Amino acid sequence: MTTNDYHLDSMVCFAIYSASNAVAKAHRVALEPWGLTYTQYIVLLETDTSDAGLTVSDLGTRMGLDSGTLSPLLRRLEQRGLVLRQRTSSDERVVTVTLTKDGTATLKDVLVALQPLRAAYGFESAAQAQELVNQLHRITEGMRQLTASPQS
Question: Model pTM?
Answer without folding.
Answer: 0.82
